[in-house]
Amino acid sequence: MKDYIEERVLNVAEYIVEHGATVRDTAKKFGISKSTVHKDATERLQTLDSSLAFQVRKVLDVNKEERHIRGGMATKEKYLQMSER
Q: Across the chain, how many H-helices and E-strands are there?
């Protein structure tokens, strides 16, 4: 793996753990695709730092469990804004 990829993988992982960030938020922050973030966090990180990979996996699992709630809140907010117009 190239050095710049290793550095990106570690930066992405640290950001996810520190901020409890979603894949989408992380992709926006680093200017990369969601697919790249996912691959970095689930595959590439495992070969670099398995303990950090475990921490990232825990955050991603929590985000996956909560995504339907966030989606519902976004829809509610959308319709509240529409009714205020």
A: 5, 0
For residue 45, what are the CA distances in angstroms to 11, 32, 50, 69, 79?
10, 16, 7, 28, 40
Cα(68)–Cα(13) distance, integer angstroms:
23
Band of the pLDDT at 65, cuts 50, 70, 90? confident
Candidates 16, 59, 67; CA nearest to 37 is 16
Answer yes or no: pTM beyond 0.85.
Answer: no
Which helix (H) or strand (E) segment holds residue 85: the answer is none
C-alpha 10, offset from chain centre: 13
Q: How far is CA 17 from CA 37, 54, 78, 80, 82, in A?
A: 13, 10, 29, 32, 35
